[in-house]
Amino acid sequence: MTDELTRPLGLKTKPTRRWKPVFLGLALVAAGALAGWGTVAIFMQEKPQEVAVAVPPQDTAPKGDVTPPAAEAAQTQPEAARPVDPDAAPLEAAIPDGQITEKVPVPVPSRRQETGLAHLPDPELVERTDQGVVPKRSSAGLRPMDVYSRQPATEGNFGVARVVLIVGGVGISQTGSQQAVRQLPGAVTLAFAPYGNSLLRWMQEARKKGHEVMLQVPMEPFDYPANNPGPHTLRTGVAAGEVLADLHWSMSRITNYVGVINFLGGKFITDTAAMKPVFDELAGRGLLFIDDGSVRNSLTRETAAQSLLPYARAHVQIDVTRTRAEIMKQLELLASEAKRTGLAIGVANAFPESIELIARFAEEASSKGIEITPVSAIVSDPEGKRG
Predict the structure, then answer these.
(1) With a cut of 50, which residues of the chain have pLDDT below it?
(2) Measured between alpha carbons, how far is 233 from 385 in angstroms, rounded to an integer?
């Protein structure tokens, strides 16, 4: 596939209102039957639109309930970004419709995607919904979190100090996306915001470079709608069907991801009733969930356990304070935590200084007795033996 296999993504925003629809044409071609199983190629035409990007403020809560969020995915980079049209025509693929109607037996089967096909969605793992094409388990029980996973350097603990690095906000800025995909080693996990231009192109390049990919899903902060993470934010106090429709919209923006990580969400991830249908849906579709660690009184761990959802929570927010000295300090803290406990998860943003210092940290990790490992290898998995 080439850079032309993308489509225009754009939106217009007002600080406290839903984003207006912009019609966007979309064409799709499917190709099948490669080495015993089909792959899907999605061909798209670009028709760029120049629009402004919304920059949500930090999620704040009453007196100390939350720490500053680690992933301000919608912040602009030095280059102007063009966010996605929330009502653009959904990504489609020539695949049969299907629904998951029953629980998958434990343990689940496992098959990792071939390296040469890592940028293409497995046709067994996608489903067409009203919001677009979203991931699902295969009829044989294969999970996207397994098929799209990266082989870790070591399996299991084996006394290795493991560090997971998740860089979010990819897809918002062309400059930031290019730097993250091309400068960071493949063992670093990249989290894509659902708002951005050329998302599929950057996802495909990231997968070709060996990165595991995650999806950042906007969730309701305490001061919503004054602080609006973006269109289709998952909100409390609304019907589960509406929440799932918003979830599916975000899920349909890219493919080939192993799971979801929250963007903001101080209010949403402290509300079990709001989270439970979302976590049930993610678990049923064979995805994992990472809590970015920004909300102190988060209830994600308990809710994930109830939903049998593969889960982990980040330990260190690397670039909340965006200075080189502070980023280096947080990376050192991450390394110390990994050596103390055997595992540490750090989250950061696709800022130039963050990317540069994380790349250097990853390059020097092995000499310091640290292994950079993909996120799928360390989650607590009710259906497997990870973590």
Answers:
(1) 1-58, 60-105
(2) 33
